[in-house]
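Problem 12. The chain below contains 510 residues. Write out its predicted structure in token notation.
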Amino acid sequence: MASAKIMIVEDNTTVAEDCSDCLVSLGYDVISIVASGEDAVAVAEAERPDAVVMDVHLRDEMDGIDAAELIYSRFRIPVVFLSAYSDRELLDRAKRVGSFGYMIKPFKERELAAMLEMALYRVKADRERRQMEERLQQAYEVESVGTLAGGIAHQFNNALCVVAGNIDLLEMNLPGDENVIGCAKEIKDSVSRMTQLTLQLLAYAGGGKYQVATLSLSDFIRDSLPLLRSAIDPAIEIVSDLPRDILDVAADPAQLQMVLSAVLINASEALEGKGHIRVACSNMKISNETSKDFPGLIPGDYVSLAITDDGKGMDEETRKRIFEPFFTSKFQGRGLGMAAVYGIVKNHDGWIAIDSAPGRGTTVKIYLPAARVQVRKPEKPKNERVEKGTGTILVVEDEEMVIAVYRSILEELGYRVLAAKTGRQALDLIKSYDGDIDLVLLDIVLPDINGSVLYPLLMEARPDLKVIVCSGYSIDGPAQGILDAGAQEFIQKPFTIVELSRKLKKVITG
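Solution.
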């Protein structure tokens, strides 16, 4: 039997000692005996027993039922009542304060043990239920804001696609103009920074892993720490424990860099210029029995990343809100921060937890599933030469400005362009166009039909059709489903003319 800590509240010394002897013989740890309701509340706050055995009738002004109500409402400690009386009024009062048992004196040892075990079990189950409800509520809030963030990022990427495309066209049409070259570079730099912001938004929204690679988390962190060191106060010491035998994970290196950077910067700011940060990796196995401690994770092999600081720590309210977008405990926020970290980890099928309290620092624990298959690293282009071509391309895209820039780019590259703003228009064009259509640039989000539903209908009408999926979202999710169904390529908005020209040439020429 577990050695639970019990407080006895009884104003009769003989009865209190008998009760204590009984509980000790049953294997419990009697940590205190008090004689009044006021003392019971004070000791419960100071010593936090696992349960209280409480006499109903006490000599002071506060009787046992009033004391039990305060103890349970404030500290969630279960109370089992002892009484020589069992009239209806007493029982009704006991029920209203959330009693976990009511025993009539004299009682048998086995009856008291059974009553206490039921009380301890009930309060443990109630605590776990409330924790699960809090987690679910947090997940719902994160999901709802994530949906909004994903929509904003998608529209933002469309706008960036128009800007980036027109800049590329200007450079192509005015190759020797120094003013154009200078202005174009500054605009491209701004587009690059804005693209990073949309990556954060999509990461928070669970918008997908962009360029997945199989990598050792230990090696990745070992290589990344020197790059991130400049963002951390030099007075802060970073120590690491990065074993060589760590399992590989399938992850996007750029997004992992965002996670590592955000957590390390948070830790350094909590240290306020002095202290230590410890970064450690380890392998772990989650079983069916332990999976309940990691909501959403399936049993299997995982890699754990723990980042610990000995800073000022967080109170409970801050800890609960740490994953809210734009939440900050500082005077001025820095952006998405830990909200993006949460989105990235969840999108990698992982789990993240924060352990912190004022005065004892913070530990961020991240769990990522071990890689089951080798993932091919994306090939980097060898040069920046635009590949021109010939043929007819159907653009399926609902944004008029995006269609316009696609048309200009594609015509500049030598292609004939057809356009459809809805799935229905695309189907009608595919069926009615009297000529070859060499390729479709297919957006996923359309006003009347999703791209993943449209794709098989297009292929049914023209089985030899070639398709490049083009989206402001990532390759994961619907885009990957279309690729699995047979589409040839994927391109992420915003893209450059060079990227698009190569994809077109590769797909059309086979």
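Discussion. Residues 331-335, 374-382 have pLDDT under 50 and may be disordered. Students who got a different answer should revisit the alignment rule from Section 12.3.
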